[in-house]
Design goal:
Elements: E1 2-4, E2 10-12, E3 18-20, H1 25-36, E4 41-43, H2 44-52, H3 60-74, E5 80-83, E6 87-91, H4 95-98, H5 100-116, H6 120-131, H7 148-173, H8 177-190, H9 195-207, H10 211-229, H11 235-246, H12 270-282, E7 285-289, H13 296-304, E8 310-315, H14 325-333, H15 341-345, E9 350-355, H16 361-374, E10 378-384, E11 394-397, H17 403-417, H18 427-433, H19 438-446, H20 453-458, H21 463-466, H22 481-490, H23 494-503, H24 512-519, H25 523-531, E12 536-538, E13 541-543, H26 546-554, H27 562-580, H28 586-595, H29 597-604, H30 609-626, H31 629-642, H32 650-659, H33 666-676, H34 686-695, H35 716-732, H36 738-755, H37 758-771, H38 775-789, H39 792-808, H40 812-829
Parallel strand pairs: 7-10, 7-11, 8-9, 9-10
Antiparallel strand pairs: 1-2, 2-3, 4-6, 5-6, 12-13
Length: 835
């Protein structure tokens, strides 16, 4: 909350929206008086004199107490009137930040100090900020109070002092004199005999090429001083006059100020820095593009600081309109106006670092093109969320930090706010969840002042609220994680925003086909989002950083068709892939489903329960072959909680029960009942195998079926699976028949090879190896197929089995090698080490 005295008394929220202060004239006057000394105790007698005059009425102290009581009720949250015994104090936290008059005085003092220290450009910025706090006459609507006249006069005098300091600093910094002329003319109208002010007005007019007008000002002042005061102009005013008569320039062209100095060390990006330096030697225009918070500005400054020759930094962050772009360039270069930019740069070897171009990209591109054409020695290093789009432009896309670098950055920044912090087991998880974006990592590390790493990692579901505190001196759009994304969002056209919101339904990226199907997007809008760094295109897929995706999801309209379309698309994909996973294209379809795994799981949470059951049935072979049963158990269990079992989807329900990891209980019994009464062939042939695996081989009692009541479809793969089931039955029967089992497995092997299924082939080979006097070749082939599929559990089981064969054959070294390999595979896959 900000209190405003430089104009009508008002308050303003964080967004700057002014609100009138509640209460009558007495309450408002009391508030204004306390605000002038906010944070300090004001004695009661001074308050009484200030509010009631030098001869207050007899009941003034009591009336003051009543006004204080009313003021306390009218104050917004965060402000309080405290009585200390010596008087009253208005408590506001940081008074300089909360009261515009106090902030004005602080900025004006600092600006004057910095100008005297020899940094006019920085001083001009501070003084301009100070003067920007004024909205009208100070204490405008409480001037009837006895204290107000003297305080208003004091503030008005300080404002004129600040105007003079600002004008002197701006002239020394080489700022556009046209703006100075306007401001100084208005101030001179208030104080026509203030000689320093008029001297500065003359200097500004001279710098703008209006020498005759400057000389006329001198004559006006000289005449007025003689007529009203009987005095001559001061030496300062006379010196300016003489300089104008001699035609002396007001100020020489200044050298660009040094690049902004970093406040922290630079972590990582060595390869990007080397690449950027190399690009700048080969191209005259290089643009670093990437999403907000990727560290584009820091990389550009770090690279530019290592270049030889003249380097100038042009910051467009504060530019609010296209017309201000040339002015920003002119200020940075120390020239007066756009018309002189080409002349100033001609024959001058220089690198211009043009930062934050995205919101004025068209205007910046046009100006940069003109300057490059006019100045052969000029090179431009630009940063933005999209390219300038000029012929000859080289691009350096900047994305996430490498995981190790992101973790190092977090630890370093964390140690700065929590001395002694040297890492945590969940730092890697935290940095990955923040997409490795430097700004997000630094914002998170700063929260270690008050939160633990565990609290940070657990709270990232609400990342925008969690990371809502940043460097208060940074540009507003870089202070919080939400502000970073909001800035990019604000630059999108309505159609781009809708597509970005719809893209948020994807969790693992998407192909162009999927985006078109789910979002109804045209390629032009999608390409525009890529160009503006809202979407990445990598390996043929379109992805959003999780931070951007989370923000876009907040803006998906209620009732939008994208979530339902997402479920439908991925259910169709699963149903199309299902039969292909039992044929020659098995590896290709496994790879495709791997790429879509995150979205398949997300789609499972959408749609109706019946649609979810059908999707589980279609995905079951993929989950089995890839060993993903542990990963999908949670979403499948969520689906199971929403399902009302029916005989029509009995098989799908049973597969859902198995995928949820249940082996007993009400769901398991109901699934058993459904399958026991089934009289039609299975729709998903894996059902028989998985059910047998779950309930054990003792359930197999029929020769021609893996389970009683479960009829397999009549296709080559299912017939081969039935042969494996019959072979197992032959081996487990009271009078075991290895010969019959071997014949059945050989026939199954032929069938699996014919359809091209690696899993079935490896399973048949494994069975034959158990019957063969020479099992090692068969086990080696089965192992190669399981490894090709990437089925870690089967690889580990087969290695342990082969180790037993080696031991029985008297080859302990080979057995030890297989056991070590099995242990290493289990560790990589997160399986229990049973060796």
């Amino acid at each position: 909350m900000i209190f405003r005295l430089l104009g009508p008394l008002a308050t303003a929220d964080a967004a700057g929206s002014p609100q009138p202060v509640a209460g009558g004239p007495g309450v408002r006057a009391l508030l204004a008086r306390l605000l002038l000394d906010a944070g300090r105790t004001v004695p009661v007698d001074r308050l009484v004199d200030g509010l009631y005059g030098e001869e207050p009425p007899a009941g003034a102290p009591g009336a003051l107490q009543a006004q204080v009581s009313r003021l306390r009720k009218a104050l917004p949250p965060g402000a309080a009137v405290e009585f200390t015994g010596a008087g009253y104090r208005l408590a506001l936290g940081d008074p300089t930040a909360a009261v515009d008059a106090l902030r004005f005085e602080a900025l004006a003092r600092e600006g004057a100090r910095i100008r005297a220290a020899g940094d006019p450009a920085r001083a001009a910025g501070l003084l301009r900020e100070a003067l920007g706090l004024w909205r009208g006459p100070a204490l405008a609507d409480v001037r009837d109070a006895p204290f107000a006249a003297a305080q208003a006069a004091r503030l008005d005098a300080l404002r004129l002092d600040a105007v003079e300091e600002w004008a002197a600093a701006a002239l020394a910094a080489g700022d556009d004199p046209a703006l100075l002329v306007r401001e100084l003319e208005a101030a001179a109208g208030e104080q026509p005999l203030r000689e320093r002010l008029r001297a500065l007005q003359m200097r500004a007019l001279g710098a703008a090429g209006r020498q005759a007008e400057a000389l006329a000002v001198y004559e006006d002042v000289r005449t007025a001083l003689a007529g009203e005061l009987g005095a001559d102009p001061s030496p300062e005013l006379s010196a300016v006059h003489l300089g104008l008569l001699r035609g002396a320039p007001d100020a020489p062209r200044r050298t660009p100020p040094p690049l902004p100095a970093p406040l922290t060390d630079f972590v990582g990006r060595e390869a990007e820095r080397a690449c950027l330096a190399s690009l700048l030697t080969a191209a005259r225009l290089v643009t670093v593009v990437g999403p907000g918070g990727a560290g584009k500005t820091r990389l550009a400054l770090e690279t530019a600081s290592g270049l030889s020759g003249e380097v100038c930094f042009v910051d467009l962050a504060a530019v609010t309109g296209a017309g201000e772009v040339p002015e920003a360039f002119a200020r940075a270069l120390g020239v007066r106006g756009e018309v002189r930019l080409e002349t100033a740069l001609a024959g001058r070897p220089m690198v211009l670092v043009v930062d934050n171009c995205e919101h004025v990209v068209d205007e910046t591109a046009g100006l940069v093109r003109r300057l490059l054409a006019a100045a052969p020695g000029l090179r431009v290093l630009a940063t933005g969320r999209e390219a300038l789009g000029i012929t000859g432009e080289s691009l350096l896309p900047l994305g996430a930090l490498e995981p190790g670098t992101a973790e190092e950055l977090f630890v370093r920044r964390g140690a700065a706010v929590r001395p002694g912090f040297d890492g945590h087991a969940r730092v890697a998880e935290l940095c990955a969840a923040l997409d490795g974006l430097p700004l997000a990592v630094e914002l998170a590390a700063a929260r270690l002042r008050t939160l633990s790493v565990d609290e940070l990692a657990d709270g990232l579901g609400e990342r925008f609220e969690l990371l809502s505190r940043g460097d208060r001196t940074a540009p507003r759009r870089h202070r919080t994680l939400r502000a970073v994304v909001e800035w990019s969002w604000s630059l999108l056209a309505p159609g781009e925003r809708l597509l970005a919101a719809r893209l948020s339904v994807f969790r693992g990226g998407a192909t162009a086909e999927a985006v078109a199907d789910v979002c109804g997007a045209d390629t032009g809008t999608l390409a525009s989002l890529v160009e503006k760094s809202l979407v990445e295109r990598r390996d043929g897929r379109y992805r959003m950083l999780e931070t951007i995706r989370a923000y876009a999801a907040e803006h998906l309209p209620d009732g939008d068709p994208a979530p339902a379309a997402h479920h439908a698309y991925y259910r169709r994909l699963a149903e199309t892939a299902d039969p292909e996973l039992r044929g020659a294209a098995q590896l290709e379809w496994l790879a495709r489903l791997d790429a879509e795994d995150a979205d398949l799981r997300a789609a499972l949470r959408r749609g109706t329960p019946d649609e979810g059951l059908r999707m589980v049935a279609a995905l079951t072979p993929y989950w089995w072959l890839r060993g993903l049963r542990g990963r999908v158990a949670a979403p499948v269990a969520d689906l199971l909680a929403r399902v009302t079992p029916t005989p029509a989807l009995a098989e799908e329900y049973a597969l859902c029960v198995l995928a949820a990891g249940l082996r007993e209980g009400e769901h398991m019994e109901r699934a058993r009942e459904f399958l026991a009464t089934r009289t039609t062939p299975l729709r998903q042939p894996y059902t028989a195998f998985l059910w047998a695996t779950a309930v054990g081989r003792d359930a197999r009692t029929a020769e021609d079926r893996p389970l009683p009541g479960l009829l397999l479809p009549d296709d080559p793969w299912s017939r081969s699976l039935a042969l494996v089931g019959r072979a197992l039955s032959a081996l487990s029967a009271p009078a075991a028949d290895p010969a019959a089992a071997g014949a059945l497995l050989t026939e199954a092997l032929t069938g699996f090879r014919a359809v091209g299924d690696r899993w079935g082939t490896a399973t048949a080979l494994e069975g034959l190896a158990s019957l063969s006097p020479e099992p090692l070749p068969l086990l080696a082939e089965a192992l190669a197929l399981f490894e090709e599929l990437g089925v870690a559990e089967d690889v580990v089981d087969l290695l342990r089995r082969r180790a037993g064969v080696h031991e029985a054959a008297g080859a302990p070294a080979a057995a030890a090698a297989d056991r070590a390999r099995a242990a290493a595979t289990a560790r990589r896959a997160g399986l229990p080490d049973l060796s």
